[in-house]
Write a structure and sequence with these properties.
By secondary structure, the chain is of the alpha/beta class. It is 26% helix and 21% strand.
Length: 304
């Protein structure tokens, strides 16, 4: 299954710095940090009215935090909630907490999804907010309640180890962070992320009842369970493409990327290689693919 088989929505009409009501009980404001991995920018969500929760305050961006506070003048931020600790989502929590006194909520500190191999360097350390520590740690199914709203924590590791989605219990909606986005597939890059965890989390969401997702980047997603199934088929298709190429002979990751990602944006080649590595780690663990030593970005791979 190719990317163009997923019903992506590349439209987006949120102007950076301007808050907009996008659904009952939900407002959104976009950071102006557009790029190949962030689309038009990180979306910060506000839940409720009067006494509100802020989900994903965004990067360390003084202008964004100021715009958020200006838009909430006359209201009180009671909770600061994090889906995960990549630098485009969580560093803004410190300034927002300092300005409001609100407590922070999240799964835990940033960490790799698996132990590092001997001599391995985590290439995504720079993407992780290593300073964030939530005031309140959340586990799967924990509830956060405020003035007229309740959020259920839904553990969704895979994109990174501490990723959480949040179901808004008063509606049929879920804040999906970077686990499921409407404009693109999510990046799963070891050791920051793990494909086995990611697939388990996708299957978990596919069994839930929420029909609308509010992602960390891009527009809201409707018919969400069907969209999640398209994500699952896409990942299974990537796995089959890897196995198909290896059936022709052993290969390294650059060779696999060239065979699978036809016409890829050159800026995304490195991320594609890490995504292939994530699939290979899973395939090696399941005994379908062999390599010398632990799977690595520089390794050679063959069918078992």
């Amino acid at each position: 299954m190719a990317d163009d088989d997923i019903p992506f929505d590349k439209s987006f009409d949120l102007e950076p710095g301007v808050m907009k009501e996008i659904a009952p009980m939900v407002r959104a404001i976009c950071v102006g940090n557009s790029g190949p991995f962030t689309f038009k920018g990180t979306v910060t969500y506000v839940v409720g009215s009067g006494k509100v929760a802020v989900i994903d305050p965004g990067p360390e961006d003084e202008g964004h935090v100021r715009a958020l506070l200006d838009a909430l003048r006359g209201e009180t931020v009671t909770h600061i909630v994090l889906t995960h600790t990549h630098r485009d989502h969580s560093p803004g929590a410190a300034a927002l907490k300092a300005a409001t006194g609100a407590k922070t909520y999240g799964e835990g500190p940033h960490r790799a999804s698996r132990s590092l191999h001997i001599g391995e360097i985590n290439p995504l350390d720079a993407a992780g907010d290593m300073d964030f520590r939530p005031d309140h740690k959340l586990a799967d199914s924990d509830l956060i309640s405020g003035a007229g709203w309740t959020l259920e924590a839904v553990a969704t590791p895979g994109h990174c180890a501490n990723h959480m989605a949040y179901a808004l219990k008063e509606t049929n909606a879920l804040f999906s962070g970077d686990h499921v986005m409407g404009w693109s597939t999510s990046i799963v890059a070891p050791p920051d992320g793990a494909m086995s965890d990611y697939m388990t989390s996708l299957y978990k969401l596919a069994e839930r009842q929420e029909t609308v997702y509010f992602p960390g980047h891009g527009n809201l997603i409707r018919e969400a369970p069907r969209f999640v199934q398209s994500y699952i088929r896409h990942r299974l298709g990537r796995e089959e493409s890897i196995l198909h190429r290896l059936a022709k002979g052993a290969a390294d990751i650059p060779t696999l990327v060239r065979a699978i990602y036809i016409g890829i944006d050159p800026r995304l080649v490195g991320a594609a290689g890490l995504s292939v590595l994530a699939h290979l780690e899973d395939l090696v663990a399941r005994g379908k693919v062999l390599t010398e030593g632990p799977p690595s970005i520089a390794g050679y791979y063959r069918l078992a």
